[in-house]
Amino acid sequence: MQSAVKDNKDLLKEKLKEIFGYAQFRGTQETIIKNILDGRNTFVIMPTGAGKSLCYQLPAVVLDGTAIVISPLIALMKNQVDQLNALGINAQVLNSTLTKAEITKVRKEVLNGEVKLLYVAPESLTKDENVAFLKTANVSFAAIDEAHCISEWGHDFRPEYRRIKAILDQIGKMPIIALTATATPKVQLDIQKNLLMEEADIFKSSFNRPNLYYEIRPKVNTRKQLIKFIKQHKGKSGIIYCLSRKKVEEVAELLKVNDIKALPYHAGLEAQVRMQNQDAFLNEDVDVIVATIAFGMGIDKPDVRFVIHYDAPKSLEGYYQETGRAGRDGLEGYCLMFYSQEDIDKLEKFNKDKTVTERDNAKHLLQEMTDYAESGVCRRRQLLHYFGEKHTDDNCGSGCDNCKKPLDRFEAKEKVLLVLKTAQQTGQRFGVDHLVDVICGVENDYVLSYEHNKLEVFAKGVNPENPENLQHWRSVVRQTLLYDYLEKDIENMGTVKISEKGHYFMERPSPVQLSKDHKFDIPEGQEEEEAPQNDSLQATSYDEMLFDMLKALRKRVAKQKNLPPYVIFQDPSLEEMATTYPTTMDELAQINGVGMGKARKFGKPFIDLIAKYVEENDIETAAEVVVKSMVNKSKIKIFIIQQIDRKVDLEDIAESKELEMAELIEEIEHICYSGTKLNLDYYIEQIMDEDRQQEIFDYFMAAETDNIASAMEALGEDYSEEELRLMRIKFLSEVAL
Q1: Which of helix, strand or coil describes residue 263?
Q2: pLDDT value for 182
Q3: Of 306, 230, 242, 237, whose CA–CA distance to 268 is shortest?
């Protein structure tokens, strides 16, 4: 299948310049390419932006036949194929985005020997018809990109990747090059074992990206911080990663209404829209792309100047890979993450339906993410240590927030000694959490089953005066590992053992300085809200006199219509009216919880009152605010309305949009409060009999507030929060809209 190629250094440099426009190879690129040309299996571990793609693209051009490139990211396939075609190289994709006619055309070109690189999704590779087709093709070699997807210990495990080696063996004998930008020592080992590449030549580059600056901020007033940061970097390209598709749409819209050119990018968009948005970003028609963490963009844009994590990512591997999209041209790159424990808690909930092993792995990855965020140690040192690389300097200068503004340090010789003794006495067979439990005297089932409560070190770290004792000791153990007194056991995931340096320290203890951790507690009243609001409004107190007048008017209108006052407008809506002074129907419809439906039904006396009040008090209404409110035009709301009209079960709607049931109900509430009538009878009748429905309905008709907590207290434990919220939607749709 492979045609021998003369190992000609001049030929490779000539092709490098002629086709790709580079005068010199970078790092180990040339050695890797020669290794492939020699027909040897090759394993490349190289950070994002270091030139991995060239390592298989150039040999594919030089060799006879077609190289198969297996990639999980459709966006990356398209991006690379477009670039290669622009260079005059015939590269094609074979994935689910193609029509039957397009697939036939690609296959014909491959069999004719015209295609040099064929990009294939792992799902497409495993199809019988594609295996049969590739058996008849002249395949030069196979490149497995994003190889960490093979490993269940990695951050993006994909079961289809486990089948790749068996499928390639069916196609024929060929050399393999596996490439990844994010692999811990454990993941590296797993990749080699799964691909039967234990004897492969390994080329590992440094994970250090000296041109990137790492910063983590508490998730407080995030929208204000986001707008301010991007406007400080006006005209520069940036990526913002969010946890959910819903948040992607909201943040993209928030940026647009604040005069920032931005577009969303996630798997829920139509393929054509996704490609258009990606091209707009690559072509600099927009400055910012907002994407989900779960859906890898795979873009190859060298001048991304900042990467922002609006929500915490699932793992350090994911974080490193995503931040690695900044500064790929070697120039400045700013990596900012907004962090809160609430994000970590949400991610943990997403793992509840996984198998026990997958759940444990995911929990371990999240704990590593938490440790990284909260630690006061050099961020660069932490990242490199995670990937098995030593960073000898305690301080990277001004390359991260912890080194730019160091936290206080404390003397910890005795504490490090206690950690090492605990590791020794527990047999060096456990992880960080277990060591912390033993030191802090936690008598859980795990500690008791091993009788570690009887060890001399048990509860030696207990400090009754320090309520944060567990967190403190976790930081000490973590830094003991980070400074190489402990080391990870690669064969046993999550286990640590005493290093050579640690044994020496136990024999000859010496002073040790450790860093305090960050306190990312969010001050009361400043928690991040789910739906983007007008931050300026939250900071500004409303006009109390107007608010009282609006409440009085609401009471009169409610009495006339024989409805509870909250059905007309809720208090938060009145507060916003008393802040922005809407005097037209359109302005009133923009108030949160109003919408055009309610505005038309109840709004006229309210805007008449406000207009008169504004005129009498000579009030200048604010047309601009620091962070403008955004009208929610999210497609998800249209989708939900359509599905409810078709009487689709709410569970199915939630699953199709990757929402928790509570999140879906919240979306439905927003739709209802904005003036759209929804008929949920088909669903409510499945879960509640008529008597239960009537009792709740009667309660809301007589209640002074629609507060769910009040309803639960009044109706007792017989009713769930979900039932009450659904009945509140039914009630408001029938009597208020």
Answers
A1: strand
A2: 77
A3: 242
Condensed to tens digits (0 to 9), the pLDDT of residues 567-602 reads 788 777 888 888 878 888 888 888 877 777 778 888
Does the domain formed by 9-204 have CATH 3.40.50.300?
yes
**Residue 44 corresponds to which amino acid?**
V
Beta carbons within 8 Å of 45's beta carbon, 6+ residues apart:
179, 180, 181, 183, 188, 202, 203, 204, 205
Name the CA radius of gyration of the chain, rounded.
30
Residues 534 and 628 sit within 8 Å (Cβ to Cβ): yes
pLDDT for res 632: 44
> pLDDT digit string (tens) for 43-80?
999 877 678 899 999 999 999 999 999 988 776 787 78
Q: In this model, does residue 437 exceed pLDDT 90?
A: yes
- Residues paired with residue 306 on neighbouring β-strands, in sequence order: 238, 334
pLDDT score of 735 more than 70: yes
DSSP string covering 469-498:
HHHHHHHHHHHHHHTTSEEE-SSSTT-EEE
Summarised one tens digit per residue, pLDDT across range 139-167 is 999 999 988 888 766 556 677 788 888 89
Name every residue whose Cβ is closer than 8 Å to that of residue 67 and which is 6 or more positions away in sequence: 56, 59, 60, 116, 117, 118, 139, 140, 141, 142, 143
Q: pTM of the full predicted structure?
A: 0.62
Strand partners, 203: 44
Within 147-242, residue ranges assigned H as helices are 164-171, 185-194, 222-232
Tokens 């049931």 -> residue: 661
Which is it for strands 496-498 and 486-488: parallel, antiparallel or unpaired?
Answer: antiparallel
At the topology level of CATH, where does 413-511 sit?
Arc Repressor Mutant, subunit A (1.10.10)
- Under a CB-based contact definition with an 8 Å cutoff, are residues 442 and 477 in contact? no
Is residue 69 a contact partner of residue 134, using CB atoms and an 8 Å limit? no
d(C-alpha 517, C-alpha 468), whole Å: 11
The neighbouring-strand residues paired with 241 are 291, 309
Give me the count of residues in the chain: 737
d(CA 439, CA 436): 5
Domain-by-domain residue ranges, the chain? 9-204, 212-342+372-392, 413-511, 535-616, 635-735
The per-residue pLDDT of the chain, averaged, comes to: 84
| Integer Cα distance of 408 and 734 in angstroms | 60
**212-342+372-392 adopts what CATH topology?**
Rossmann fold (3.40.50)
Q: Give the mean pLDDT of 511-537.
A: 59
Please tell me the distance from the alpha carbon of residue 223 to that of residue 506, in angstroms, as a whole number: 49
472 token code pair: 């403190």
Tell me the residue type at 728: R
698 in Cβ contact with 644 (< 8 Å): no
Tokens of 490: 């690669």
Instruction: Indicate the range of 118-127, 412-421, 504-513 predicted with least confidence.
Output: 118-127
Q: Which amino acid type is present at position 225?
A: Q
- Architecture of the structural domain at 535-616: Orthogonal Bundle (1.10)
Has residue 524 got a pLDDT over 50? no
- The separation between the first and the last C-alpha atoms of the chain, rounded to the nearest angstrom, is 70
544 contact partners, CB below 8 Å, separation of at least 6: 578
Which tens digit of pLDDT belongs to each residue from 442-477?
A: 999 889 999 999 999 999 998 766 656 888 999 999
For the domain covering 635-735, report its CATH number. Answer: 1.10.10.1390
Dump the DSSP string for 51-97: -HHHHHHHHHHHSSSEEEEE-S-HHHHHHHHHHHHHTT--EEEESTT
Task: Please state, in angstroms and rounded to a whole number, the distance separating the CA atoms of residues 675 and 662.
Answer: 20
Q: Where are the beta strands (DSSP E) in 599-736?
A: none
- The answer to whether domain 413-511 and domain 535-616 are alike in fold is no
